Amino acid sequence: DDLLHVSDLHKAYTAPGAAFRQEAVVKGVSFSIAEGETVGLVGASGAGKSTIGRMIAGLEQPDSGTIKVMGQDILALKGKARRQALRPIQMIFQDPYESLSPRMTIEQLVCEPLVIQRLYSGDKRARRELVREALAEVSLSPDRYMDRYPHELSGGERQRVGLARAFIVRPRLIVADEPTSMLDPSLRLDLLDVMKRLRQRHGLSYLFITHDIALTRHFCDRMLVLEQGVIVESGSTDAVIDDP
Ligand code: ADP
Ligand code: ADP
């Protein structure tokens, strides 16, 4: 089975207070991601990329279609069973600052997903060890970072904290929604290197959402091109980029 199989996904938003749904922003999207594969989802702003990412990560409900994670039909499940089936998928965002509570230390922030998802109820020391391990995986020295706060970190460091929060849950697929777009160009490749190393060491897959096609050349095996909610092109990254 594929790690992720998405078929005929549709989504329209309803404006608050409006009687009718607006025009669909995702219109019949289908694709699969195999174990270890890195797939770029590219397209202009407003094309529907984030909406697709959020639906896959369980943060948004599709109107119709199927999402299978390791063979399990997510939309047919509810409550705890759904959360468990979705656990292999974690998401990172454009601006990690938004998801990092300013009053929590980096240790607490990286530990938070374990606490929220009730993944680990062991003793403090064992939990701290998992946090240290996750920080080391994203090249942040645990001794230097555990006790600091998000505002004391650079944008690139905060993004790596976001990645550590995703990694600590031991996902198989990370949905990365424009993770580099708020970083300086020199730091973009650093973050991609950290993501690549997680892929090499743990066989992680990625759905890499970006409007920057050039970045996919550094990172993605395969690419899906989205236009107004429809996949208009897909194939190996080189083939799609070189296609005039
Ligand atoms: P992309 O990630 O490609 O920029 P999005 O999925 O963010 O595209 O948005 C697709 C369309 O859906 C846009 O027109 C956007 O304004 C609209 N949209 C996104 N989120 C919402 C929302 N929560 N409510 C209403 N409209 C939304
Ligand atoms: P101490 O009292 O030794 O400073 P804390 O109470 O700050 O320890 O945290 C104990 C453990 O629980 C740590 O591993 C920390 O990461 C985690 N933790 C504490 N508060 C939270 C929280 N609000 N969300 C997630 N994890 C937390």
UniProtKB/TrEMBL annotation:
**ABC transporter domain: residues covered:** 4-244
Q: Does Zinc-finger count among this protein's keywords?
A: no
**Per its UniProt record, what InterPro entries does this chain match?**
AAA+_ATPase (IPR003593), ABC_transp_ATP-bind (IPR050319), ABC_transporter-like_ATP-bd (IPR003439), ABC_transporter-like_CS (IPR017871), P-loop_NTPase (IPR027417)
Q: Which residues form a coiled coil?
A: none
Which biological processes are named by the entry's GO terms? transmembrane transport
| Keyword set, alphabetical order | ATP-binding, Nucleotide-binding, Transport
Q: Which SUPFAM superfamilies match?
A: P-loop containing nucleoside triphosphate hydrolases
Top-level taxon: Bacteria
GO MF terms listed in the record are: ATP binding; ATP hydrolysis activity
**Which Pfam families does the record match to this protein?**
ABC_tran
Q: Does the keyword ATP-binding apply?
A: yes
The molecule here is called Peptide ABC transporter ATP-binding protein
Q: What is the lineage of its organism?
A: Bacteria, Bacillati, Bacillota, Bacilli, Bacillales
